[in-house]
């Protein structure tokens, strides 16, 4: 049985218990739409055949565009376009795309509208990001010589998310040794 079949079955089981459940895929080739016979998009969509079940696809390119816009919007007010353009260029690498995708992952995980969040084929790299990004934030703060408020705030969120993912009381279905949250 495949990952999509298992995650879909687990999500349906939670929804049938009366729990609002979000089933999220980060796989660009996901076939959740085929499983439920309906489109799966960037925003949570109710599954017509299962009350309390919602599906969503995290798109890394769309996540990157939204992340960059949130980061660049305040700069546009303060700096000339050449500086904003340079910042935009620096944010165009794969690392920023991973961070932006992980931000979407966190948003799904922490969405208070759902009792359960089930991830279909979340890449292990996403689950390792909080630790590596926290190291990057610490290194950046040391290079500047002082804490950078925005980076520290982001670091705290990453640390809380990593703790949640590794907490077996919140994610009882993940095998021992894997990160935990009330996710599957």
TrEMBL record:
Residues 2-137 form the ArsA/GET3 Anion-transporting ATPase-like domain. CDD domains: ArsA. It holds the Pfam family ArsA_ATPase. It comes from the Bacteria. Signal peptide: none annotated. Belongs to the arsA ATPase family. This is ArsA/GET3 Anion-transporting ATPase-like domain-containing protein. It comes from Sulfobacillus thermotolerans.
